[in-house]
What we know:
Blueprint: E1 23-25, H1 27-34, H2 38-53, E2 57-58, E3 63-67, E4 70-82, E5 88-96, E6 108-116, E7 122-127, H3 129-147, E8 156-160, H4 164-175, E9 182-186, H5 190-203, E10 208-211, H6 215-220, E11 224-227, E12 247-250, H7 258-262, E13 265-268, H8 271-274, H9 280-288, E14 294-297, H10 298-302, E15 314-317, H11 322-338, E16 343-344
Pfam families: OCD_Mu_crystall
Protein name: 2,3-diaminopropionate biosynthesis protein SbnB
Region (Disordered): 1-20
Amino acid sequence: MTDMLSTATEPDTPHAGSVPSFAIISGKQVEQALGGREKDLVDLVEATYRLHGAGDSVNPPSYFLRFPDRPTARIIALPASIGGPARVDGLKWISSFPDNVRTGLPRASAVLILNDHDTGYPFACLESSVISATRTAASAALAADWLSRTRSRPRRVGFFGTGLIARYIHTFLAGSGWTFDAVGVHDVSPDSTAGFCGYLRQAGATGQVTVHDSAEDLVRSSDLVVFATVAGRPHVTAPGWFAHNPLVLHVSLRDLAPEVLLASANFVDDVEHCLKADTSPHLVEQRTGNRDFLNGTLYDVLQGRAAPPHDQPVIFSPFGLGVLDLAVGKYVYDQVARAGELRLIDDFFHDLRRYG
C-alpha cells in the first residue's frame, strides 16, 4: 500500500519564526484535486485508520450545536490532530440541516481549518462538503473491501437513500474496482431517485438498475446494502429482512433498530465516537447495558484481530473521524500548492509583533 500520508513540506506551510500565510481553497479546487483519484484516496484513508489505531493521532469527541427551534438541524465540530509524515492539526465545522433537501440544497455544508503542527497558526480554510463526502465514501469502500475478504464478494448493491453521499459511495466503489450485476435504488423522494438513476446512467454504472418501491424489497434483493439517509431515528425494524446475511454499510447511523443490530455482527470505526448521540449502536448499548454486541473496529479487521462471520449479516457503522478529514484536507492542500494555485490572503494575520 502506498504511504499516501508522505507529503513533501510545501513552502506555503508556516515555519517557526516565519510570517504565516493563510490560503482559501474553494470547493471547485477541492473537487479538481480529488477527482478521479478514488483508489489513492481509499489508500489514504486506510493509512489514516492505521495511524489512528496505532495511537498516532488525537481525535476527541465531536461537539454538537443543536437548536430548540430547529430540532432536526445541528452543526458539529470535529477537532483532530494527526501525526505521521503529514503532521497537521485542525477542525471540521459541518452543518446538517435535513430540511435543505426540500429546496434542492444538499443537507450538509462544511469548512475545514488546517493548523500548522509547530506554530498552531491556521494556514488554510477549505470548503469541506466535498472533503467530508470523499472521506465518508472512501471509508465505506475500504470497509466493503475488507469486510468481504472472508465472505462472498457482493454482486448486488442496494442504495437506501440516494443523495450526495450515495453518489460518492457508488463513485468510490466503482473507482476502487467494484462491479455489480445489479444496482437497487430506494428513496422516499421520487426526485432524488430519478436524479440518482440519472447519475448512474451518466457514470456508465455496471449492472441492471432497479428502482424499488419497497424498502424491504431493496434490502432482500441486495447483498451489499448502503444506508445513506437523513433519518433521525430507526425506521428499519425487521431482522428478517437481513436473513440472507448481507454486508451493510450503515453510513447514516440511525436507520436500524436495535433488534437488527442484535441479530448481526457489528463493526464500527471508533467505539467511543460511534456509541453516542443516539446512533443505532448507542441505542443498543442503552438497551443492553453493555457493548458485547460489537465484534470490533475496522482497525481490528485491518490488523487481522477480527473477521466478519459467514452466517450473520455484517453491519459497519462509521461515525466519521476528524482525522480522516484532516488527511484528505492536507492531501488537497498539497495538490493545490504544488500546482501553484493557492489563493493567499497575505494580511490575514495583522499584528505579528509580540511587543507592538
